[in-house]
Structures are given as structure tokens and as C-alpha cells.
Amino acid sequence: MTTAFENARAYIYRNARPLDFARFRFHFEGGDQEPVLDALAAYQNPDGGFGHGLEADAWNPDSAPIQTWAATEILREIGFADRSHPIVAGILKYLTGGQDFDGQTWGNTVPGNNDYPHAPWWHYTGESHETYNPTACLAGFILRFAEKESDASLGRRLAREAITAYCEGELLEDMHTAGCYVRLLEYLEEAKEESVPDLAALRERLGAQVRHCLTADTAQWDSGYICKPSQFFNHRDSVYYADNQALAQYECEFILRTQQPDGAWPIPWGWGDYPEEWALAKNWWQSNGIILNLLYLKGMRRL
Fold this sequence. Notes:
The protein has eleven helices and no strands. With 303 residues, it is mainly alpha-helical. α2 runs antiparallel to α3 (33-41), α2 runs parallel beside α11 and α6 runs antiparallel to α7 (149-167). The longest helix has 25 residues, at 275-299. The model has no long low-confidence stretch (mean pLDDT 96).
């Protein structure tokens, strides 16, 4: 395990962009939150939203909901909870300002994506995407951090609508949207939000959702873009761990087995177009993957 960590560390030191280097230092070398926040702020625009390829599959510099969601995930990853911080205030400003928002959901893609290198799934077609990715998660962020009642009211309404749509339909097939609902529940519980009905039922349904999404056939793990336990949780204290313990422990073995000689892990997707830009984006994703894999091993008490 020491060799695996040292090889991963060497890759980060050689290749990571400043944000991911600061994240690595914070989690594994006693670093502070401030370097992470400083690096993250470089991706934030005056409107409060995030762009500039923070989510490395879309290089649009303008603010976009998915890019802003990526910022909220990093804040959560480092345990940052200061409501008054300019980054948080900016995110709330963007989310409550109406940009890229149709009154019910934030756009999964935005037109400006098409003007810059991007993965095909972030290409804007003008068609409506009836998905709560990332809206469910962003609604939860608002409720967790909003100080103004008007902002909280927006988050509360969207959370109710998202939960109603989810609970009245079939279990989701898309693991990313399912992950947004998992995060929404976490935000609601942390905010002690009592106005959203029957969180116990949502919690039970999400337990079934996680089991439904996970790729139980581990023979597929080496050859495809599949759903692993780390999509939903990364520590043994998770409410989802007990029901998926065997697969969660298998993921530890899988991580250790599939590390590449350079210290990184394979990226199971690609763009097709923009080969030069993809080569750089792939490098960024590998640094991100190192951090997430090591955090998973740490949470599973294998690091």
C-alpha cells in the first residue's frame, strides 16, 4: 500500500493542476483549506457561477450549472461550511439569479459549451433534458447554505419537486442523477429541513436505488463505464455500506489491482473530438481519480 500511495503522490506532484494539488495536500499531507479555496476561486466568474473547465470535460469559460455543481462537490469534499465565504455567497448568487434556470431545473448543458472543447455529452442541442442532474444536488446546497429566506424558499420548492418526481417514478437508471438525490438527502439532513415530507421514505428508496445502480457483475468492471460503490459513498460509516459491503470491499481490491505504473488509474471514457485537448483533460481527470480513489481506500480503512 505504501508503494501505491507513493506512486500516486508522485503523479500528483508531477501532473496535477493547482486545485488538485491543493486537494491532495489537504487530504493526505496535513494541508489547509485555504489553498484549495484560493485555487477553486480562480474558476469562479463575477456572476458567482463556475466555468473554465473546472469539470474537465467542458472547457467553456462561462458559468454553467454542471461546473458550479463541481465546485459544490469540492467544498463538500474538504468539509467547508462557512456560509459567509465569498465562494459560497457567489454560488448562491448564481443559483438564485435565474441564469441557466427555467423555473424548475438548471440546464444540464448550456449553449456556450459548443464554442469550446468538450465531451459529446456536454454538447448543447437545444433539446430539453428532463433530469434532476444537477438540480437535485444544487437545491440541497441552497437549503444547506442559504441565509436569506427567499433563497431557502427556492431551494425548498425545488427539493420538494425533485423528491416528488423521483418517488412517483421508477428507480433511476442513471447513476449520476441518482448520486444527486443521495447528495440532496445528505444536505436536507444536515440542514435539519423539516418542511420536506417523509425523509425516512426517501432514505429507504435511495437504499434500493444504490443497490439498483451498482454493477454487481464485477467481470464488467475492467472493460466498461460502470457504477461502483464509490459513486455513492466512500466510507464504512455510510448508511449504504452494510447492504453493499462485499462490493465495497471488492472495489478496494479493484483499485489496488488497476493502478498504472505511473501512479494514476485508467479513465474509462474519452471525447472522440478535440484529441489534443482531451489529452490534457484526461491528465486532469487522472489527478482527480487519484484523490477520489485514495479517499475511498482511506474511508474503507485500507489506506
